[in-house]
Design a protein that fits this description.
This protein is mostly helical. It has a domain at 25-60 and 71-98. It is built from 4 helices and no strands. The chain has helices at 2-7, 9-59, 64-70, 76-97. The chain is flat. The two termini are 41 Å apart. Belongs to the TatA/E family. Residues 49-74 are annotated as: Disordered.
Length: 98
């Protein structure tokens, strides 16, 4: 399938034109931005999952109780997600106002 895109670049041009026609020029950057945010979140979650096994060994010590109390606080990822959501909401309100 992807070989056709390399062999026949006009297929890619037609695909881009169809995307612009279907979604419009205003929605495509928002969609790309949303996809980028999703990928960033996915990568950070995968990284966090890899580190979870390492942290379990560390929290088995008596200091683990302090770490468990720290878990109830919002993580940096949650704070970042909240900030991005607030940005998206503000941008959407601004778009609706115009």
């Amino acid at each position: 399938m992807f070989r056709n895109l390399v062999d026949h670049p006009w297929v890619l041009v037609i695909l881009v034109v169809l995307l612009i026609a279907l979604f419009g020029s205003k929605r495509l950057p928002d969609a790309a931005r949303g996809l980028g945010r999703s990928m960033r979140i996915f990568k950070s979650e995968v990284k966090e999952m890899k580190n979870d096994g390492k942290e379990d060994v560390k929290t088995s010590t008596p200091a683990g109780a302090a770490a468990a109390a720290h878990d109830s606080e919002p993580t940096a990822l949650e704070a970042k997600l909240a900030a991005e959501q607030a940005e998206a909401d503000a941008a959407q309100r601004q778009t609706r106002a115009s």
